């Protein structure tokens, strides 16, 4: 009889500890305005199609605690943004503004640098059209 009571007590402690662990777990969405981004998803698809039709595509890489952007159409770019997103920790997300560049490459230093998976996306406007390019990168 006392083994049955002990089993129920240990089971209750086990369930209680699981509840405490689950409540303390940090759950963050990929983006703070996730729902608004879903509404704009068709625009994003159109921008990706525009980027896929380019003869030369932007190239992204990690170099010396920075994101290196090699952009062949930099002089004709009107405006743009570079987003570095860390899906597992939104505190590591960073955003950079792009303007027309003299050269073909540009470095964007990262404030916080941790190993793992990053989703780097580039949006820009060129000759009245919007473009979107995304690359998943692992450091």
Report the top-level CATH class: Mainly Beta
The secondary-structure element order is HHHEEEEEEE
CATH superfamily: Immunoglobulins
Kindly estimate the percentage of residues that lie in beta strands according to DSSP. 25-35%
Q: Taking Cα atoms only, what radius of gyration do you get, to the nearest Å?
A: 22 Å
Shape: elongated
Average pLDDT score: 84
Summarize the structure.
This protein has 139 residues and is an alpha+beta fold.
Describe it.
Helix content is 29%, strand content 35%. It has helices at residues 2-24, 34-39, 41-52; strands at residues 59-62, 66-70, 77-85, 94-98, 105-109, 117-126, 129-138. The strands form two sheets. A four-stranded antiparallel β-sheet has the order 4-3-6-7. Strands 1-2-5 form a three-stranded antiparallel β-sheet, with no helix packed on it. The longest helix is centred in the N-terminal third of the chain and has 23 residues, at 2-24. The termini are far apart.
Keywords summarizing the entry:
single chain, 139 residues, alpha+beta, Immunoglobulin-like, four-stranded antiparallel sheet, three-stranded antiparallel sheet, 3 helices
Fold topology:
Layout: H1 2-24, H2 34-39, H3 41-52, E1 59-62, E2 66-70, E3 77-85, E4 94-98, E5 105-109, E6 117-126, E7 129-138
Antiparallel strand pairs: 1-2, 2-5, 3-4, 3-6, 6-7
């Amino acid at each position: 009889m006392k083994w049955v009571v002990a089993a129920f007590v240990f089971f209750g402690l086990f369930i209680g500890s699981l509840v405490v662990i689950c409540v303390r777990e940090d759950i963050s969405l990929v983006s703070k305005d996730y729902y608004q981004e879903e509404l704009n998803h068709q625009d994003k698809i159109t921008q990706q199609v525009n980027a896929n039709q380019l003869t030369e595509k932007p190239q992204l890489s990690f170099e010396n605690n920075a994101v290196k952007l090699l952009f062949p159409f930099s002089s004709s770019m009107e405006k743009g943004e570079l987003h570095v997103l860390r899906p597992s920790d939104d505190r590591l997300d960073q955003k950079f503004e792009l303007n027309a560049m003299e050269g073909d490459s540009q470095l964007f230093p990262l404030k916080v640098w941790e190993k793992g998976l990053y989703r780097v996306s580039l949006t820009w406007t060129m000759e009245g059209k919007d473009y979107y390019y995304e690359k998943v990168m692992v450091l």
